[in-house]
Amino acid sequence: MAVRAGRLLGFAIAGVAVMSLSTVPLSWLTVSSSLPDLPTTGDLSTRSSGLDLGWGWGMLPCLATAAVLGVLGGVRNRAAVAAVAAIPALVAVPLLVLAVLPGITNPTLPGTKGVPPQIAAVLDRNAEAALEAGWFAAMLLTLLAVVLGALAFALAARQRRPSDPAAVHHH
Question: What is the rounded distance in angstroms from the CA atom of residue 136 to the CA atom of residue 147?
Answer without folding.
Answer: 16
